[in-house]
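@here heads up, posting the sequence + SMILES for the flavin-adenine dinucleotide run so it's all in one place. Ping me if the SMILES looks off, I pulled it from an old spreadsheet.
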Amino acid sequence: MTDVLIVGSGPTGLTLACDLALRGVSVRVLDGRPGPHRESRGKGLNPDGLEVFARLGVEERMAATGNRRLVLRKYFDGVHVSDTPADGGVLIGQWQVEEILRERLAGLGVRVEYGTRVTGLAQDPTGVTARLADGGSVRAGYAAGCDGGHSTTRELLGIPFEGYTEEKPTMVVGDVRAPGLGRDHWHQWFTSEGGGILLCPMPGTETFQLQSAPETDGDGEPLPPTLEGFQRLFDRYAGIPGIRLTEATWLSSWRVNVRRAARMREGRILLAGDAAHVHPFAGGLGMNTGIQDAAALARTLATALADPAPADALDAYEAERLPVAERLLADTSARHRRVLAAVREPGRGTEAGMG
Ligand SMILES: Cc1cc2nc3c(=O)[nH]c(=O)nc-3n(C[C@H](O)[C@H](O)[C@H](O)COP(=O)(O)OP(=O)(O)OC[C@H]3O[C@@H](n4cnc5c(N)ncnc54)[C@H](O)[C@@H]3O)c2cc1C
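bot reply: prediction finished. Complex structure tokens:
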């Protein structure tokens, strides 16, 4: 029987899988998507995330793939007002983080099983049985729900996801090309009327991660993201004639979600990462906290597997990580408010969410 079944192969599930495999624990990693994605999403590793990756032997590769010397270039009402270095972390696309972790995992003899969606979970005193969408099943000693904000694992366990979700999306995001736009800075255009657009050059690619408030229809309702809409937002806020955005490889909307799981464990099944907490991304803490959850969970499960009476060891995980999730929600909400206020002032911007 496999020691640990990991549901989800985002940064949290892959970190957990590498950490457990390095400890000699047998794992299977299932993911419902058909294969890897190439979306920039969470684009910053902070010193805490990098510390975990140093132990897993992938920090240098992350740093070499990403960029440690990012400069935020701010424009206010079309005028270049400041350049601010963002020190201490590594700018890198989430898909690249996942790719490096997947390769590390493959080196340890484990491959992600794509196209394998978990639809049911049952447990007894000796293990967990996961039911799969294709009718199959997997048996393991423990299971880890690393399956993101819409976690099936959390829902199957009936664990409440406490908090709130704002009714309307407040941001559109995506990956685009912008031929002619400099790639040495994270461009951030803000205006005194309150709107803005951000284009961040993603290392190792020709793309920028774009973030902006959504366009709205005649009734003030947010419109879904499109390449044409991105271009209109760019023309309105950046106003650089001749720059045409192309090849949108990722288009998404984002709304404020501030929620955490009421519990992070139910018997032999534990939650980590976005499955356990979602919050504003000001400060870039989501992926990094999932990586730290995973490190704590690997320690917990390795201890539990070696312990004939593992209840205390398992309880220690929630005792350690639930207060972290609680603080994370308050902290990132405060950072989000600081950013919203700062971008209305010339010379200030998203770095207000970083300290
Ligand atoms: C625009 C943007 C910018 C961000 N910036 C940052 C940043 O700078 N720094 C930072 O730390 N974070 C950032 N984040 C947040 C970060 O993207 C998330 O916190 C991170 O993806 C969470 O990782 P995860 O592994 O917990 O979940 P996910 O990445 O959501 O992975 C979950 C996986 O589970 C799989 N899955 C779901 N259900 C099932 C099922 N039933 N069976 C099998 N598999 C399943 C999914 O296919 C998916 O692959 C940002 C997010 C966005 C959108």
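MO: Residues 116 and 265 are 23 Å apart (CA to CA).
MO: One more: Residues 7-13, 30-33, 41-44, 94, 117-118, 146-148, 152, 173, 254, 273-274, 281, 284-288, 290 surround flavin-adenine dinucleotide (CB under 6 Å).
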